[in-house]
């Protein structure tokens, strides 16, 4: 059309030859200008009317129910600390969000973190008690939404930080999906808030970029560094319930990113060779992006922006960011090594629990967007190793930080960590900042919620392998139920029972560690055939209407990975293994994190809230012979809870010897190079990492 209009003007101009040529030509231009303006606006709208979609689509919360060991873990969470914080934990039940006075920072994030996990935990388990908690919070927040649209009690601009609202919005989003009867009032509240946010952001990024030290919402610059998170919530609103408010939603999303960039928190400048730090703190000079949880979430930043501006370079930069992160700061357990701040690869440095659950969610998000198999593997690695290792078997206690080489857990003489106290490895209520107390329970509920995803109109993928049952509706009102019966990751066979009204395509994700030669699949008890993964890493099964049964098994093998100082770590399939130490457990009533002193009884949930110190009773300073490994596997039903000591039905046996290993002020040295055996050869037992609470993971090789 634009070309046509230009040609028309040119023809008219050529036709005209008298003195009024300019006059008439200008008149025509004036007549055509509205048309050209409309065309320009339509062009912009068409470019902005669609966010780049995810490759795979998640299902509404509650569509997937847990089974087996995963259900037991979620039930323990519900009956443990996570399910009772609403009853007693001061930063939740007496939060400013519900009319109380307790907050531990100007971010006002604690109750929002809680809401973000209690909704998926409640609806995953269909737990009436937890649903009641979630509804009470939702009702209060919506009833007290301020006239200008603000969510929360803050009235002063220096207190009104946008980022802390993100977790409330995420809880609302999940609630709206799980309870369609609540969708309208939730969406209405979100529109009021996004309109206010858009207005604030147009005022030099008010509420996002702190102006000075008086803006208490800017503590640590976490909000501006994680600007993409609020944008993610707004993208859901734009995708699902725009309600004619596209301009304001799009504008708010755009300004969230622009505000972060203006504040020099542009992750594109960080995920670059030569810029990204290859060492840990305190040796990092530019510290804008060194916070570990910021990084766990920041790996989503380029993709969230790509959905908006469609710049193809952001795809490559996402992959680059993930690879750089795990190449230089990756832990064997699947998480990031960062004790608040990036710590390199040292096995005596810590990994924060918040970072584990955020890494799980980030990898799930990236897998659903790109379909890159390695991202799902990473989500599983954290879920089966890093996260459970930091929790007591009854889910009443957690560590703030854990180490790969952690032979004892206690109030240390001196902290090696960048920004975590000496008490940070103790299992308890709040061994350090309270964020992990209120954030860690999102891990398994969101893992389950991403375990099955839709592929197109008529496809369903089992993406994050685990026991569970999904009920959903595919194309043409095809009602489908898939039950996954498995002990995975402790055993690598899965049986699917499928009922479908009509035919559909079922896909099973094949982990990258799978040994195809010893893997197989059987459909409806027919002979076993070899797996044939698609380019995306799926085993595709064309399921007919009616009942179908599929049994699939994944071959696995030992993998010995070399780490710092030539120490090694041992993996097998989705599991990491560590020296299984005997220990004594000494407990005291839970301490508050700052100052470190006993909490009064009215701030505890007695007798369950205790802090646990663990002391080894068997030697931990050893060198090993990886060539001597023997795998042991038991049959029978899995023990519950699975992540207690001795819980998993498999372990490794290998040769080892005692060596000298220095400890100074409760800080282990790095693994010694070329150690000398102090004793003769002996047998030691390695257990799945997630079941070990004191452990040695990265060990030197003994001279045989």
TrEMBL record:
Q: Where is the Non-reducing end beta-L-arabinofuranosidase-like GH127 middle domain?
A: 475-545
Q: Which InterPro entries does UniProt cross-reference here? A: 6-hairpin_glycosidase_sf, Beta-AFase-like_GH127_middle
- Write out the GO biological process terms: carbohydrate metabolic process
Q: What is this protein called?
A: Non-reducing end beta-L-arabinofuranosidase-like GH127 middle domain-containing protein
Provide the species name.
Answer: Pyronema omphalodes (strain CBS 100304) (Pyronema confluens)
